[in-house]
Amino acid sequence: MSLPKVYVSRRIQDAGLLLLNGRVEYEVWEEIGPVERGVLLEKGATADGLLVTLSDRIDEELLSRCPQLKVVGNYAVGYDNIDVKAATERGVLVTNTPDVLTNATADIAFALLLASARRVVEANEFLRSGDWVTWHPNLLLGSDVSGSTLGIVGMGKIGQAVARRAKGFDMEILYVNRSPKPEIERTLGARRVALEELLAASDFISLHCPLNEETRGLIGEEELRAMKRTAFLINTSRGPVLDQKALFKACSEGWIGGAGLDVFEKEPVPLDEPLLTLKNVTTLPHLGSATIKAREGMARKAAENVLAALEGRRPVDLVNPEAFRA
Ligand code: DGY
Description:
Elements: E1 5-8, H1 14-20, E2 25-28, H2 37-44, E3 49-52, H3 60-64, E4 71-74, H4 84-89, E5 93-95, H5 102-118, H6 120-128, E6 149-153, H7 157-168, E7 172-176, H8 182-188, E8 191-192, H9 195-201, E9 204-207, H10 221-225, E10 232-235, H11 244-252, E11 258-261, E12 281-283, H12 292-310
Parallel strand pairs: 1-2, 1-3, 3-4, 4-5, 6-7, 6-9, 7-8, 9-10, 10-11, 11-12
Helix pairs in contact: 1-12, 5-7
Bound molecules: (2R)-2,3-dihydroxypropanoic acid (DGY).
Residues 54, 76-78, 101, 288-289 line the site of (2R)-2,3-dihydroxypropanoic acid.
């Protein structure tokens, strides 16, 4: 009997690929850059499963050209690159990789928060360019993190992990979330508030909501103007949650203190992006889950989810349970 066919759109960690050995017939896109659309369409046409990354757009057009497809395993917790509704209508299971990247992503959010507050990247460049001529009482002064107020937008698993880190810095925690999180309120003293209150009261705001039609453009000019002039905005969720043009105005005209960004509206961010000229904006190339442990966990989960679907079992990280038929 022939094995099911899986196309893997990037060379993920062996921890995941080895699980596929002998259970499916698989092929991997070996280039550093994302798989070309034409190749994905061609491979998808005969695939039973796709194991993809956030660089791959899995839309109606692609799904309609993959008649055998049973599962799309995303190697990411966010799945805004996949048209889940279209997949569900076709009975295609969609899976993601939660949990294994929670701490890594919370760490990078906190790294950006600390780096923004204490001007770490700016100071590094100052030193290396030979500008450090003397210690001075007013040299590169930053903002206190300890004892300040953190506003978390989206109190899911990553938001909660950020809140736990903030507790260690004696921060007051405010949050916005669709549903209350009583356990987090009890253990960390976090307070659920309206977005307006969070914007006005926070010294740091960290975005942890998924990208969907409700959150696209959630933070725009009006919201940035509502923030404290000294506050910093941290984004490790998805670029389009934030209006980048408005953020440039906010950071360059002093409406807010600055920003720390791991994600952008367009990735890789074009080098002529105005935000890249600002000293009060710290940027990273989408590294939230980029630790060895997290990425191995993601590879393992993505592979296990695809295998489960192809072997008729319910995948652990099923995004669209309504598409599952036992
Ligand atoms: C995710 O998992 O959604 C991250 O953005 C990439 O790891």
